Amino acid sequence: MKIVIIGNGPAAIAAAETIRGQDRSCEIVMLSRESVPFYSPCPLAEYVEGSVPKDHLFLRDPAFYSRSGIDIRYGRPVIRIEPQTRQVWLAGNEAVAYDQLLIASGSKAFVPPIPGLATAKGVFELKTLDDAEGILERIKTARRAVVIGSGFIGLEAVQALIRQGLDVTLLEAQAQVLPAMLDREMAAIVQQRLTAHGVQVHTGCGAERILENENGVRAVMAGGCEIPCELVICAAGVRADLSILEGSGIASNRGILVNDHMQTNVDGVFAAGDIIERPDVPEKYRVLPIWPNAVSTGRIAAWNMLGIATRHPGLEAVNVVRVFDTPIASFGTQTAEDCLRWQDGNGAVRKVLLQEGRVIGGQLIGEINGTGVLHEMMKKGIAAERFGEALAHPGFSYAHFMQPSRAVKWA
Amino acid sequence: MEKTVSKTIFTVVENCVACKSCEIACAVEHSCSKTLAGAILETPLPQRRITVEGVGAYSYPSRCQHCSDASCITACPTGAMQRDGNTDAVFSDHDRCIGCWMCVVVCPFGGVTADPVNKKALKCDRCPERTAKGEAPACVSACPTGALLFLTPEEFAAQRRQATAHAAVCGESTTKLNGMDILRSLKGAN
Amino acid sequence: MDATILPVIETALLQVSADKGLATARDRLEVMSPQCGFGELGTCCRICYMGPCRIDPFGNGPKTGVCGLTPDAMVARNLLRDTVGGTASHVGHARHVLLTLRDTLKGKAPYQIKGVSKVMSLAKTFDVPTEGREVNDICRDLVNIALEDFGRQDDEQPNNWLSKRAPVAEQALWSKLGLMYSNPHNEIETAMHASSMGNDADPLSLMMRVLKMSLIDGWTGLALCVDLQDILFGVPEIAVTEAAVGVLEENSVNIAAHGHNPVLSEKILEWAEKLEGEALAAGSDGINVVGVCCTGNELSMRHGVKLAAHNSQTELILATGAVDAMVVDIQCIWPQLAQVAKCFDTAFITTDAMVRIPDARHIPFEPHHADESAREIVQTAIEAFRRRRGKPVDIPQLKSTAVAGLSVEAIIDLLSRLDAEDPLKPVLDQVANGNIFGFVGVVGCSSIKFRDNAMTEEMVKHLLRQNVLVLTTGCTAHICAQDGLMTSEATYRYCGEGLRSVLEILGEAAGLGGPLPPVWHMGACVDNSRIVDLMVVLAERLGVKVGQLPAVGSAPELVQEKAVSIGGSFLAMGVSCHIAPAPKVLGGPMVTKLLTEDLQDLLGAVVRVELQPKAAADWMVAHIGEKRAALGI
């Protein structure tokens, strides 16, 4: 059997390793857009900041592929997929045949249609190692930077640039920072922290135009003002990269539609990682492009490609970001009928959101221990009323669930 | 090397009196000096990986469960969180950990915590240095009431059977009420 | 299970702290929880350096200390040291008042003899001749009798205050049990000595020491102290006051007097009046001295000073930002207060060399220079007001009216309006006919651990419904006052029919225009001797022992070691006690059994632990019922 995997990120690697762990004989071909071995994009901001060395980005050594019997083909972006003939087409009109195909090509940065943003020199995303290298080169001379977008990539970029000694302006088109993770009140706490570290934060203020000179970007027009800068980082969100699906008949919406086996609507074609969408689950669990989901969906896809039917238990709807060492976690939804609140007087605030006696979301700043327990309660729909206010306390743990089974003397 | 999966940590909830000896022993074991007197003088201070939580009238030493399908390993984007090939213990490699806290927010047990000082994920590593020498993990050794046990699943099951059998033959009521039972029943009324 | 009700005042006060981002004792308790089971059981011994030793309550681990000390001896030894802590506190307070009185008589301290009636009654008790003598001379004799108690080295000679003040029948029993004492200081020394490493290891012997130490608390720590305070500052008379944080005034110089010893607070009150002009000149409406903790009780008993906060609210009232000075003397002063005060313009002033707190302002106060120090303290408050003036404050507008000042003398005076010949008779008749089912002395502290279920208030209400008259002191008195239980309305609202009818008659006699409140404010925690004295006169009139009366003691929110020794002194009188939380003895089964059962045979009293208000009240009512049955009423 020949398995082709489009991608070389966490979903692709998790799938390849899972397949190889089960089946020594099948042929595995990985098609990588980039030209470097598997690396983690998550610490790229820390790499730019200087706190993580480059070799720590790579999670497998270069010999990993040959050792694992994986035919890795670097720098080979896929152009289209032809399920009728079970082939994928690469640039240069080259076809690769497959028995089973896994699409794990991930997401790409969303670049808003702002004049100059896509073309100007000195404008970067922070999604790939190439982006990070470009930024590092640029900040050798840049003094001022504008970051567009205050999602978690944007905030990580802000912190990295501040720590590299740049003057940083953060632009957020919406009325608050971290709009996808926090409510207004919590966002205000984060904004205060950013400001305290010298970041110029402009919310409700979108970039309108990139102004250039001979050295590339020289300023960003926003809110009618010119913000001089030598570096722009575009962090306006990520989107599934669906361009390769054209003409393939593979169904997609915001992402490739898959079932809980990571199967697409097309026989023999699976998808995993940032690129997928789960139409069969509640809205908040449909598109969740984070690392844990990439790894877990990659594994599930692999089992099913090998014919071992395995269901995915559901995506993790949780995210965490640090703003100048303050951890901020968020899961589920941001509004609900009931909200439990805890604060310690030193800036830590925890909110747990409840609907009909069940946890449906949470936002935690400063004190995030136990977030996973609350998130698990949300996933499992555990009745939460009996825990009362204790839910929002940092000391709340899974041990509290054990109370009813107290009669069982051993645990 | 021979794989030594045999023993793991079990918790007997009813024996926990919340003295927090396990917490102190854990922090000391994860210090440089490995002595209490030395540990409290270290900078940064060593951190514990076990926390005694109050649950009604009872208490429970909460820590990593070393899950077989560990969500923290799945979630770790730097390869820091791993499973020890010999002992099956899940541990975090501090050199690789960047403190992104993804493990903290996905662990359904709250078994991984954020070390605010060192910015590294903290979790029970089941004391590899001690177990390599054939000793029990620090928390187990420090527990004065047998609430924490370091046994093979077979040994634990045998203990359990014996306790059940003992209760069946002698009846639970013959066991004399101890002070902790009284205290718990008083608090349980709360 | 009783419902969880955080009292309205606590809720409002906690909100004030939360709004300012201040952590409170509740937060600190949460971080501390769960608390160590060895400590709670009393089976942690830190007395010697082979330790610390801990006994496994489940029998799997250590069964004795390294030295071989048994769990029972361990808990008894620890309990003895708790009792010593409590007794030493009260005895220290008592001696301070005694020396102040001595120096006043010598003209070295600027105080006066305000309680002439007390001098006369004590002279009678101690067989001091009064005929044709100056009050000061009589008083000097009393001082010498008291001083003798602290100087005597011949242990065969009984303590004066114990042997002359305590009822004779009880003394016979104490004598038989070896509980009589001579010099309290010697006994405190002996108890510390006996409980140190390698001495008394017999739990029964240690428990007898606990009772002896408690007896010292009762008759020297409390009775002597209160007697002499009444001489110096006057015998309390019925007064109407107000209680809870709402007594703070935004535009006044608010001085919160906190602690226990009226030697300080009386002078503060005096100088607040003298310096009213300076306060007005500073732009205030005047000086508002409010009382906190037992200092508050002392001032309200003698002057009707308003009660601002009980002990567990002390840090919370500072968060209002409206307290210009909190001046403290001894006992129950949380170090945290200095930290909260720092966040505001509040001057947090310590005065006693024994109570030094980092970040506090220390203005030494000793009786010889009381006026100078008191003036400085009040002026410091006025200065603080100048800084605060115009800044926003956050005072929850909550307060209740409260009747205070029910000393034994005030009660008998009231009763004599009904029957001048035999003032106690009306009460005893009502006890006999069941309109007064019995008495409960609700004493002791306010505890963060029990504020969540309004332990004291709810327990008291359950008692009132069952026609039990409640006598209270200390911080539980604050709690009752704040909850409106010291008002006529409370009589209508909470009392059973019988109790209500009695209180209506008494209220009429007192000219209150309504019934007497059902909860009688009898003073500070040191004033527990007033409750005992009241029981003694009732028992003597009836010709029974105090232990036979339908009376129980309760410390529903025990915090301080003092409450442990006070409880012990009640037990020694044969009065059973309810306490919460559990005493730290449960790790010793024999000691536990002694306190909860076997003490009945020895003293006719037992200890009962109930952590829920209704259960506690139910037990006390049942216990009173048994006493009534034994009396045949």
TrEMBL record, chain A:
InterPro entries the record matches: FAD-bd_OxRdtase (IPR050260), FAD/NAD-bd_sf (IPR036188), FAD/NAD-binding_dom (IPR023753)
Residue ranges of domain FAD/NAD(P)-binding in the record: 1-298
Listed GO MF terms: oxidoreductase activity
A family per Pfam: Pyr_redox_2
Superkingdom per UniProt: Bacteria
Cofactor requirements of the protein: FAD
Assigned keywords, A-Z: FAD, Flavoprotein
Assigned protein family: Belongs to the FAD-dependent oxidoreductase family.
Protein name (record): NADPH-dependent 2,4-dienoyl-CoA reductase/sulfur reductase-like enzyme
UniProtKB/TrEMBL annotation, chain C:
Binding site for [4Fe-4S] cluster 1: C36, C44
Oxidoreductase in keyword set: yes
UniProt binding sites for [4Fe-4S] cluster 2: C45, C48, C53, C67
Cofactor names: [4Fe-4S] cluster
A molecular function GO annotation: 4 iron, 4 sulfur cluster binding
InterPro entries: CO_DH_a-bundle (IPR016101), CODH (IPR010047), HCP/CODH (IPR004137), Prismane-like_a/b-sand (IPR016099), Prismane-like_sf (IPR011254)
Enzyme class: oxidoreductase
Its EC number(s): 1.2.7.4
Entry's Gene Ontology BP terms: generation of precursor metabolites and energy; response to hydrogen peroxide
UniProt catalytic activity: CO + 2 oxidized [2Fe-2S]-[ferredoxin] + H2O = 2 reduced [2Fe-2S]-[ferredoxin] + CO2 + 2 H(+)
Binding site for [Ni-4Fe-4S] cluster: H260, C294, C332, C445, C475, C525
UniProt entry tagged with the keyword Oxidoreductase: yes
Sorted UniProt keywords: 4Fe-4S, Iron, Iron-sulfur, Metal-binding, Nickel, Oxidoreductase
SUPFAM superfamilies in alphabetical order: Prismane protein-like (SSF56821)
Name of the protein in its database record: Carbon monoxide dehydrogenase
